[in-house]
């Protein structure tokens, strides 16, 4: 898989309180991914970009909430998240501390 496709598949890390707890306790990281991405593509992209070994990938679709903006109804965008479990001796450091 080429570098450009990897960047398209992994949209961004999904930073949340739940994601931080999972990273600390269960060595899982959460990413927002492309809506057409498969588990094998996500696995290859994470292994290629971060030089780690992936144990398993779980993908879920999150439906956008309907919100009211004044008198008008609006809808947030749908998104797709991937929970990536890494092997025991691997870790991803997003801070990039040197």
Describe the structure in your own words.
The chain has 98 residues and is α+β, with helices and mostly antiparallel strands. It has one domain (3-86): 2-Layer Sandwich (Alpha-Beta Plaits), CATH 3.30.70. The protein contains three helices and six strands; from the N terminus they run αβαβαββββ. It has a four-stranded antiparallel β-sheet with strand order 1-2-6-3. Strands 4-5 form a two-stranded antiparallel ribbon. Helix 1 packs across helix 3. The longest helix has 12 residues, at 39-50. The chain is globular and about 50 Å long. The model has no long low-confidence stretch (mean pLDDT 92).
Radius of gyration: 15 Å
Total strand count, please?
A: 6
Distance between the termini: 29 Å
Mean pLDDT, to the nearest integer, reads: 92
Order of helices and strands: HEHEHEEEE
Number of domains: 1
Q: Can you summarize the main beta sheet?
A: 4 strands, antiparallel
CATH topology: Alpha-Beta Plaits
Q: Class, according to the CATH hierarchy?
A: Alpha Beta
Strand content: 35-45%
Please bin the fraction of helical residues.
Answer: 25-40%
Biggest sheet: strand arrangement: 1-2-6-3
Kindly report the name of the CATH homologous superfamily: RRM (RNA recognition motif) domain
Dominant shape: globular
Number of helices: 3
CATH architecture classification:
2-Layer Sandwich
Structural class based on helices, strands and sheet pairing:
alpha+beta
pLDDT < 50 runs, ≥5 residues: none
